[in-house]
């Protein structure tokens, strides 16, 4: 029988929780510092503007492209490779004059003067008003997810656990934001989707640990809270690590083969999975402990719980 | 003993069967095809036969041809053949048969009849254009008021009530001035019953009696709704004219319209046609060329005329009264004037338009008539770093001709620059005018090559993801790994089947959702298998451990999956475009995994170990 994590391990997770807090705090501060100084590289979806991806049949000469764009009234164009040297992404801020939605066609005709072999691969134009709306609905989605998870965990488990879970989730999400900020990943709708999926994943991990704690508090009559929580975490450790690993592997496939469009998406998920795993082991349970979680909090059964837990 | 009741096994087999059946069309793929429709009618077999004959003459191999759901469908072996064929068929059938590039499912007929179709690929996978258009509601209200002012002028003339002027103020209200209060009151009495959607209020300005009229709330709402509906109809007509198969045109919010055109090649033209507001007006010419020059220099025009310009800048005076507007045009085709050989548009008018045209041209033989080309354009300019929309109305006289004879319902217009301009104008006239101008506020265009590349990326990522997870599970859990991997495969087939059945749009983020599901779905099996291992360690017999493992892990699995589902559902509800695709596959995948990871693996485990009474060891 293969085992990633020895089943009879008795690691004292909670005794060492202050080290974990310190580590968390360090990353949190780093994230907040980066977020407040460097900020987030907001993508086209939220800022508005024009992005054009063009393909060449040979390696593209970025300098030549920049030069020809500069000469033709596009001095603010940001030009960079996109995935390969044959593919170039050009980003323009919202236009000062003229008809915004014709910019892309105009840029393409300018590029054709430099190299006739250029082909349009993708154009995205988002008007400033639409960008603002997408941003607002994204923010709303995030709040609704957080609120929904808080309600779910407090109904199914216990308010102290729910508070611990939501604080942990916020902690995870701030760190992922910090990661996005530090690496300069473009934050667009797809990355937002990864971000919200992470919220679900992170809570999912905590719930498995919580579930076991509840079971053990009822089953094991002796022992302090810390001891029982340690046992629970040790027991679920294998599962937590293996699930993290399988999810990590599938996202890794996306990172390798998914192409440039999914790059930010998969990178965000990869880091988020590692963070979520760490925090569900350490932060979530430790917090509920420090919030004063007691055995008796979990012994009261509601009717609904009786039903579900009745399964032998 | 671990056995499933017979009905559970049957249920699993049935679900598997349906999943395989509805996922199968995706393996057949799609053939490049041409979709031929007939304007205002259903297509007839003769037209399809004619097209096939023309293709045969041009040496293009046809794979199959027939009529499906009111449209002719000709399938080909390769995209090359399809692209060559489109011009051949267009020439053979002429203007009345719009021809569109399409992809036809290659699955057998009987399958398609049972609703088994391949997944509907989003624009990022098949290439195409997505537009979000915002209707200018202010302009819609303004033109609605203008139409009513025109009507009121006629009504007052008919009722013999004198008025001094009738205009639209600020684009928000109608203002009519009268010589005396009695005339005004009579006018209000006559008009208010005729225009119940307006509120009339009396006033006096510079000692001159007048009234203003504004839309009631309900009236304005009806106007807005009408603007959206009419614009959607017009867009639909235009898109059909462009030859786009499976376009999506729908309202979003109060004043926006989404237009999605899959597989379109010439995006620049598509944008021009969709956003164009061009229409025509026919007016009688007023005065002589010397009057026109005078009016240009002095800036004064006769009260019943307005100053226009021709394309070359020449001034020309036209009567204020319109003979016929573009709305009266029922048909238009492009071609060449037989005498001069210059590009021309042949126009058909409806009954009312034809009568007016006949009346007025009949009374004015020997006089001149002008054709005015009208186009609304809006440009965004930055004023003090804030985007400000500027509206421009371009009104050009494209043609001034002497009325030789009484015109009726069909006549031709010349004065266009190129055959292309004639073709586009004919298209716009056929499709009808937009009720209100629109702006493109969001555009996403994906070229066909990038679409194919995205599909490849998605397929590769799915395969690698599956392989990595499968290898890990097999090594780690052995026989129980096999069951988990089979369940994972079934899960994938189920996602594809449900997506095909719902015809939900599959996007690249959607594929990402599928790959992510692979990783998350085995979580249930990890939970179960770890639990079984634990129960074994606690000293349970293998059979008892299997039973306990599945049962005790159940509640945990449900709880933990609900959280991921919750996030996915919110994402679906609040997310836009590509994100929705991600949410859909995640929701389907996680729901399906509850079935596959719990029931399918259990059935397999029961099959392998369930009947053995003296089971001493299991491979986990």
How would you briefly describe this protein structure?
Chain A is an alpha+beta fold and 312 residues long. Chain A is built from twelve helices and four strands. In chain A, strand 2 and strand 3 form a beta hairpin.
Gap between N and C termini of chain A:
26 Å
Q: Roughly what fraction of the amino acids of chain A lie in strands?
A: 5-15%
Taking the sheet with the most strands of chain B, its summary is:
5 strands, mixed, barrel
Q: What class, by secondary structure content of chain B?
A: alpha+beta
- State the strand order across the main sheet of chain A: 2-3-1-4
Counted by DSSP, the helix tally of chain B is 17
Integer-rounded radius of gyration of chain A: 25 Å
- Helix fraction bin of chain A: 55-70%
Q: For the CA atoms, what is the radius of gyration of chain B?
A: 34 Å
Shape label of chain B: elongated
Order of SSEs of chain A, N→C? Answer: HHEHEEHEHHHHHHHH
Mean pLDDT of chain B: 86
How would you explain this protein's 3D organization?
The complex is a heterodimer of chains A (312) and B (620). In chain A, β2 and β3 form a beta hairpin. In chain A, α5 packs parallel to α7, α6 packs antiparallel against α7 and α6 runs antiparallel to α9. Chain A contains twelve helices and four strands. In chain A, strands 2-3-1-4 form a four-stranded antiparallel β-sheet. Chain A is an alpha+beta fold and 312 residues long. In chain B, β2 and β3 form a beta hairpin. With 620 residues, chain B is an alpha+beta fold. The mean pLDDT of chain B is 86. Chain B starts with 5 loop residues before the first helix and ends in a 10-residue tail after the last helix. Chain B is built from 17 helices and 22 strands. The longest helix of chain B is centred in the last third of the chain and has 55 residues. Chain B is elongated. Classes of the chains: A alpha+beta (312), B alpha+beta (620). Chains A and B meet through β4, α5, α7, α8 and α9 of A and α10, β18, β21, α14 and α15 of B. β4 of chain A pairs antiparallel with β21 of chain B, so a sheet runs across the interface.
């Amino acid at each position: 029988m293969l085992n990633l994590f020895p089943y009879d391990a008795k690691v004292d997770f909670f005794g060492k929780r202050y080290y974990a807090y310190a580590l968390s705090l360090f990353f949190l501060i780093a994230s907040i510092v980066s977020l407040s100084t460097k900020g987030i590289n907001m993508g086209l979806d939220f800022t508005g503007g024009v992005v054009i991806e063009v393909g060449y049949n040979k390696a593209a000469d970025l300098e030549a492209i920049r030069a020809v764009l500069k000469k033709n009234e596009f001095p603010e164009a940001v030009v960079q490779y996109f995935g390969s040297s044959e593919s170039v992404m050009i980003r323009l801020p919202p236009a000062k004059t003229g008809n915004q939605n014709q910019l892309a066609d105009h840029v393409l005709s300018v590029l054709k003067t430099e190299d006739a072999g250029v082909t349009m691969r993708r154009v995205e134009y988002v008007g400033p008003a639409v960008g603002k709306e997408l941003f607002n609905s994204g923010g709303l989605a995030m709040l609704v997810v957080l609120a929904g998870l808080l309600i779910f965990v407090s109904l199914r488990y216990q308010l102290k656990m729910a508070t611990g879970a939501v604080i942990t989730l916020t902690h995870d999400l701030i760190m992922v934001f910090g990661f996005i900020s530090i690496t300069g990943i473009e934050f667009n709708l797809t990355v937002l989707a990864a971000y919200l999926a992470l919220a679900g994943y992170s809570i999912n991990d905590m719930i498995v640990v919580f579930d076991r704690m509840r079971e053990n508090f009822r089953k094991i009559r002796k022992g302090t809270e810390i001891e029982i929580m340690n046992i629970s975490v040790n027991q679920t450790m294998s599962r937590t690590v293996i699930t993290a690993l399988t999810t990590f592997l599938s996202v890794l496939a996306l990172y390798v083969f998914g192409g440039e469009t999914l790059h930010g998406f998969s990178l965000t998920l990869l880091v988020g999975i590692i963070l979520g795993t760490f925090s569900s082991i350490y932060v979530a349970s430790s917090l509920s402990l420090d919030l004063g979680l007691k055995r008796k909090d979990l012994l009261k059964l509601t009717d609904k719980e009786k039903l579900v837990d009745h399964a032998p | 003993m671990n056995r499933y009741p017979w009905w559970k096994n049957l249920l699993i087999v049935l679900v598997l069967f349906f999943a395989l059946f509805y996922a199968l069309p995706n393996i057949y793929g799609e053939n490049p095809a041409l979709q031929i429709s007939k304007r205002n009618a259903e297509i007839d077999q003769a037209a399809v036969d004619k097209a096939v004959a023309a293709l045969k003459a041009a040496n293009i191999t046809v794979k199959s041809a027939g009529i499906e759901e009111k449209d002719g469908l000709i399938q080909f072996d390769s995209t090359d053949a399809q692209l060559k064929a489109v011009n051949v068929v267009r020439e053979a059938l002429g203007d009345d048969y719009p021809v569109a590039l399409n992809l036809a499912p290659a699955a057998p007929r009987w399958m398609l009849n049972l609703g088994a179709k391949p997944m509907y690929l989003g624009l990022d996978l098949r290439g195409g254009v997505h537009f979000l258009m915002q209707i200018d509601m202010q302009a819609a209200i303004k033109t609605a008021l203008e139409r009513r002012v025109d009507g009121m002028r006629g009504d007052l003339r008919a009722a013999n009530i004198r008025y001094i002027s009738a205009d639209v103020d600020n684009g928000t209200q109608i203002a009519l001035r009268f010589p005396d209060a009695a005339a005004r009151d009579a006018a209000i009495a006559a008009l208010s019953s005729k225009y119940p959607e307006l509120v009339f209020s009396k006033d006096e300005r510079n000692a001159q009696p007048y009234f203003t009229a504004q839309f009631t709330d309900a009236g304005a709402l009806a106007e807005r709704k009408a603007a959206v509906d009419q614009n959607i109809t017009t867009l639909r007509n235009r898109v059909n004219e462009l030859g786009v198969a499976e376009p999506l045109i729908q309202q979003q919010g109060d004043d926006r319209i989404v237009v999605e055109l899959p597989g379109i090649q010439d995006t620049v033209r598509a944008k021009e046609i969709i956003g164009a507001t061009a229409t025509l007006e026919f007016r009688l010419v007023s005065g002589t060329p010397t009057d026109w020059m005078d009016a240009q220099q002095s800036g004064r025009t006769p009260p019943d005329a307005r100053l226009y310009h021709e394309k070359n800048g020449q001034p020309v005076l036209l009567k204020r009264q319109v003979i016929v507007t573009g709305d009266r045009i029922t048909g238009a085709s492009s071609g060449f004037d037989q005498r001069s050989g210059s590009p021309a548009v042949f126009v058909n008018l409806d009954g009312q338009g034809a009568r007016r045209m006949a009346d007025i041209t009949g009374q004015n033989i020997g006089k001149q008539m002008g054709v005015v080309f009208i186009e609304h354009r809006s440009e965004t300019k930055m004023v003090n770093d804030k985007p400000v929309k500027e509206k421009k109305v371009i009104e050009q006289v494209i043609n001034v001709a002497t009325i030789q004879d009484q015109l009726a319902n069909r006549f031709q217009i010349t004065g266009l620059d190129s055959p292309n301009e004639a073709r586009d104008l004919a298209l716009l006239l056929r499709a009808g005018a937009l009720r209100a101008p629109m702006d493109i506020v969001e555009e996403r265009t994906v070229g066909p090559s990038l679409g194919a590349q995205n599909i490849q990326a998605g397929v590769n990522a799915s395969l690698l993801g599956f392989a990595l997870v499968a290898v890990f599970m097999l090594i780690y859990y052995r026989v129980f790994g096999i069951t988990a991997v089979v369940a994972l495969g079934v899960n994938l087939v189920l996602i594809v089947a449900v997506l095909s059945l719902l015809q939900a749009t599959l996007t690249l983020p959607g594929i990402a959702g599928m790959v992510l599901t692979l990783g998350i779905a085995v979580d249930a099996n990890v939970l179960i298998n770890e639990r079984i291992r634990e129960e074994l360690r606690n000293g349970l017999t293998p059979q008892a451990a299997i039973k306990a493992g599945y049962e005790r892990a159940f509640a945990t699995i449900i709880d933990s999956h609900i959280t991921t589902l919750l996030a996915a559902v919110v994402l679906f509800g609040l997310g836009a475009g590509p994100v929705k695709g991600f949410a859909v596959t995640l929701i389907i995948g996680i729901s399906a995994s509850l079935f596959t990871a719990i029931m399918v693996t259990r059935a397999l485990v029961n099959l392998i170990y369930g009947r053995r009474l003296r089971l001493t060891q299991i491979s986990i």
